[in-house]
Structure prediction request, 205 residues.
Amino acid sequence: MEFPLSARVRAARRWLVSTSAAGAVVAGAAVGCVVGDAAGWVSVPRTVQAVLVLVTLFVLPVVWVGAHAVWALRGRAELFAVAGEHPRRRPTDRQLADHLRDEHPLTPLWWMVSILGGLCALCLGFALPFAVADGAVLAGVLLGAGLALSLAALAVAVPGIRRTERQGSEDRRRRTELWSALPSAVERRLAVPLLGTGDGGHLGA
Prediction:
């Protein structure tokens, strides 16, 4: 029997599902526009294509991972809170995998921000000298501002990763104290990160 979770957790789950559906639509539109324009089936302005591609690559991943983090955090907090009221029960395998993974829910978000921030900094860093050399003042200013934002994102994300790793270790210890005996299959599921290679490591780790 599952631990009952509040309406806040269910609302976060609905927001996650809605975000996933909207992301699929935007990604499909981006692919359709690029392919359709390249094949000559439909004429799509390059600006529209660029915006859709940039949103798909850089905005949607962060939004989806952030929505997942909110849902997981709310469920994790409530499961820990009600554990004291039901000492002989434990969450279901699904609830454990959804909300009580080995990693802290914010860890994937910080990794996503760091990866995308690093990619943006790399791209903008190479583009900035060419823009400035051509005398395009506005382009240089925009690229420079984007580069600064990307570096700032990296500066914030790296300490965030370290902080959430410490929080994740504390959460694992607390989970083990509350529910010491878990099936090995469940333990393996809890060790798989949301973003990673499947062997406990994140992309870019």
The chain has a mean pLDDT of 88. The radius of gyration is 21 Å. Residues 14 and 105 are 17 Å apart (CA to CA). The helical segments are 7-39, 46-83, 93-99, 107-133, 137-178, 184-191.
